[in-house]
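Dear colleagues,

For the upcoming journal club I promised to circulate an example of a predicted protein-ligand complex. I picked one with zinc ion because it came up in last month's discussion. The inputs are reproduced below in full, followed by the predicted structure.
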Amino acid sequence: MPVLDTAALLHWPSERLEGGIVAHSQLEELRKLSPQRAMLIESIELEWMTVSTEDAELAAAETGDLPRLSPVDLDVLAIAIATGQELFTDDYSLQNVCRSLEIPFHAVSNRKSTQQWSWELRCIGCRATKKADSQSEQECDVCGSVMKVKRAR
Ligand SMILES: [Zn+2]
């Protein structure tokens, strides 16, 4: 049974969702996004889980995607790691972490990213680059201009 992210809960027909694995925190998220949809989801047979996000956080920190993942994203990722089931998500950062862990994943719609990437800081002045440890901008050590977070080439 696949692990389903919130995009699937919002957009898939209920027959397709049945039996899927989801995080308890997704229901709260869904209630905020679409109370009507949340009521529908509660009436469907799903496997609701909550697992420790420790491994998910470590893996996401490793790829540099951690700052881009919400607590709900991490819950969903943690379930995919714990169960070893394939994950349906359109979130490129979640896909990126899955790829690094060799967890199978699919897009909810048809936008699967094909390349592994990492993040780097690139100076807008002298173009110097360095590895990004966080998603915040920094001052360039070389010329003092702003370094912005970019996808590493
Ligand atoms: Zn510079």
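Two points we might discuss: Helices lie at 6-11, 14-17, 24-33, 35-42, 54-63, 71-83, 92-101. The first strand starts at residue 3 and ends at 4.

See you all on Thursday,
B. R.
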